[in-house]
# Entry
Amino acid sequence: MHNNWVYIAVMAGVSFLIRVLPLTLIRRQIKSRFIRSFLFYVPYVTLAVMTFPAITQAASAPAAGIAALSVGILMSWFGAGLFPVAAACSITAFAVSMLF
Amino acid sequence: MHKTAQTEHRQVFLTGAGDGIPIGLGYFAVSFSLGISARTAGLDPLQAFIASLLTIASAGEYAAFTLIAAGASYLEMAAVIFITNCRYILMSCAMSQRLDPSAPTVHRIGMGALITDEIFGAGISKPGYMDPFYTYGLASTSVLPWALGTMLGVIAGNLLPQAAVSALSISIYGMFLAIIVPPSRNDTVILGCVLISFILSWLSGKLTLFSSMSEGTRILILTLLIASAAALFFPRKEEPDAQ
# Structure
């Protein structure tokens, strides 16, 4: 069986190295346009993959998840911040799940 | 009055601490829902606190807790943390260009270790060389609420009814949307990436080949695939630092 503390050590260790190594070692810009572009797209792709369809499965009813997804997309499209969007998604999911 | 370097550092630190408060409030709410997934993964409150304090990454921690819940291998954990936190490599590179070249290694390590989307964003938006003490100030009021929120999520997740817990767990996805949607509005390639990611992520859950894999591995493979394709067909023209 795996140990939670080892998991945490791996999480912390890899995160630390990722953040610190470029700042301490690389003193020049990365030249490769492909690597720069790849790194640029990574966060959007990862977050999108993690969000859908997981958001529809996390709610107690799929309709609640779909409603939260719609509200979240609309609000962030019109520039709402991180916290308001997160709160609105939760409230929407809760309200819709009450109907079922 | 003559200002010593020390009082100047303290002032910069305090300015950063003030700017970090709204970040910390947002972090607290989001990390609470992260704590709920930590609880599902079987972490105790102390483990959740330490994991959040040392990892400081919403998407990364969320993926990590999913892996712990699935009993994944340590290697898989390292790979997924690497891929979900890949953007910090870019931010760290960007910061390396904005530091006083004579900045001592201890500050490079300190500033690097505290990189989050928001701390990076607030720090790099200031003109001139980045001041390590401003970053430390930002972190002082935001990283602790982040870790405490995760811990409270583990503790109070027990006390809340199931409908409230699942509604709260939705907030993390709301936060992800708030990160990916605004840039999609201004950039067709990002919009395309997000839509294709949605579709392939949904499809991969349906295909037997993919659905037998763990969620973490699927995230990893899809990210490598889609981001590489985007980089190949739509290389960035402008400086990607300006995200």
In short: Chain A touches chain B through 76 residues (CB under 8 Å). Chain A is about 80% helix and 0% strand.
